[in-house]
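Recall the central idea of this unit: under ordinary conditions, the amino acid sequence of a chain determines the structure it adopts. In this exercise we apply that idea directly, starting from the sequence alone.
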Amino acid sequence: MAVEDLRQSPMMGHMLDALENGEDIGHYGRLVFAMIGRHFVDNEELVGLLTQDHDAGEQEIKALVQQVQEKGYSPPKREKILEYQGQQDFPICPNPDDPDACNPYQELQFPDEVYESIQEYQEKRQNS
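Accordingly, the structure predicted from this sequence is:
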């Protein structure tokens, strides 16, 4: 999997374009990008992509990527992305009024283990 796969998501394409232009995608933009991007590129490439955002230093980016990896964060749902977006200036979701926009689970094909992890979490929640 690669960066080209990420571009299947208009939201991720929007963030990739912003990063390529050296724009600040905000803390939550970087977090969302890392939570999704880690399933498509290796950590080194992910750090490289995110350090194009000159508002965050390389050490900060490396720490974020490491945290996301170690905690095994699943890609956020649309609702969470919109919640994050409300806490910063950069529009993570370029078209928030479209109910089908910015849903990574509809826009991208993740590795099977992502779906299995979500299923296990849902089952544990139901049994609590």
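Helices lie at 3-6, 10-20, 26-37, 43-50, 58-71, 78-85, 104-107, 112-126.
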